[in-house]
Amino acid sequence: xxxxxxxHDVFQAIADPTRRKLLRLLGDRELPVTAISSHFPMxxxxxxxxxxxxxxxxxxxxxxxxxxxxYKLQPEPLLELKRWLAYYDRFWDNRLAVLKHLVEAEDPAxxxxxxxxAVPPGE
Length: 123
Fold this sequence. Notes:
By secondary structure, the protein is mainly α. The chain has 2 domains: about 10-75, Arc Repressor Mutant, subunit A, CATH 1.10.10.10; about 80-120. Helix content is about 50%, strand content about 10%. It has helices at about 10-15, 15-25, 35, 45-55, 80-105, and strands spanning about 30, 60-65, 70-75. The chain has a 3-stranded antiparallel sheet with strand order 1-3-2. Strand 2 and strand 3 form a beta hairpin. The N and C termini lie far apart (about 60 Å). The model has no long low-confidence stretch (mean pLDDT about 85).
């Protein structure tokens, strides 16, 4: 018996530009795979594989309506990505604050004995 294939995480799922485009497309409305496929220069099977990866990551849900499956964006897992990126937002804000302090310092002695690292973040 084969072990089940591991599920994809949000970071793996959004790593591919096609899947990011799929998420943007599904952000506005629920669509069947035939309508989704018309936006891509690939087969419906290839689009379905991308949708399966997004589904494994919890980023899209599917619902059977008649004979077709409709896909819908589930944005909640993107919160993990948002939290991860928030660290880097703070990192760059601090770096830019240090740079601003250095550029605006009238006297190089104002920078401090340890250079830019001596400047407290947010000042």
